[in-house]
Design brief:
There is one protein chain. The protein has 1 helix and 6 strands. It has 94 residues and is mostly beta strands. The protein has a 6-stranded mixed sheet with strand order 1-4-3-2-5-6.
Length: 94
């Protein structure tokens, strides 16, 4: 049996992660954030939820083959940096 390992995904601008959406944990850590788990072969990547990421992940279902791309940071109200992501739900037969 293959062993799986969890890693946190820390992308650079333009990088993407493709895999199966396997879990969503809510109220995790001291800031009670959402933690998404995406499995690519034998590696399960953990992604901390952000306002914009949480919003786009609402359409994905556990078991979906997805691709998340980190687009970069956007300045909000001239002061705050917000990480931006794009989500694509792929055909599970790929």
């Amino acid at each position: 049996m293959d062993e799986t390992h969890d890693n946190f995904w820390n992308p650079q601008e333009g990088e993407y992660l493709k895999g199966v959406y396997v879990d969503k944990l809510e109220n995790v850590g001291k800031f009670e954030n959402t933690l998404y788990k995406i499995q690519d072969k034998n590696i399960t990547y953990c992604i901390w939820g952000k306002v914009q990421l949480d919003s786009i992940m609402e359409v994905a279902k556990i078991g979906d083959l997805i691709q998340i791309q980190y687009v970069g940071c956007e300045t909000i109200n001239g002061r705050f940096q917000m990480k931006r992501y794009e989500l694509e739900i792929l055909d599970n037969e790929e």
